[in-house]
Amino acid sequence: MNKLSGSERGLYEKYTVINNKTGKPVKQFTFTLSPEKDPAAVAALQEYIKVTTNRTLAEELKCHLESILRMDKVKCDYCGKHFGELRSSPYTEDGEMCSTCWKMAREALLASYGEDIGEF
Ligand SMILES: [Zn+2]
């Protein structure tokens, strides 16, 4: 039995791709990319955009990829995840904080110093 974790496992049938026209699984080799989680998928899509002859698809993929990369730059400085909305950290002037971390900081500051920083 293969005990390797997902990132070390190599090629295997992780997903079943369904053809939307027929409702049936696609039989030919199909490779699924997740650019939001995998930098290699971003690189693969950037190359695909360069070589595909379908310019409409290339433009749409480029737009989608740019929005993912923009999202990736907007990360909470405390938990490292990316969220749509961030606000300045109550601890430092440089940091950006997500609503989840803000809630935890609010509780911690209230318990430790009795100071309420308010809602996110
Ligand atoms: Zn956070």
Question: Can you tell me about this structure?
Answer:
- With 120 residues, this protein is mainly alpha-helical.
- It folds into two domains: 34-73; 75-120, no CATH class.
- It has three helices and two strands; from the N terminus they run ααββα.
- It has helices at residues 39-51, 55-73, 99-113, and strands at 87-88, 96-97.
- Strands 1-2 form a two-stranded antiparallel sheet.
- A hairpin with a 7-residue loop joins β1 (87-88) and β2.
- α1 packs antiparallel against α2.
- The longest helix is centred in the middle third of the chain and has 19 residues, at 55-73.
- The termini are far apart.
- 5% of the residues are buried.
- The mean pLDDT is 85.
- Bound molecules: zinc ion (ZN).
List the SSEs and their pairings.
Elements: H1 39-51, H2 55-73, E1 87-88, E2 96-97, H3 99-113
Antiparallel strand pairs: 1-2
Helix pairs in contact: 1-2
The chain binds zinc ion.
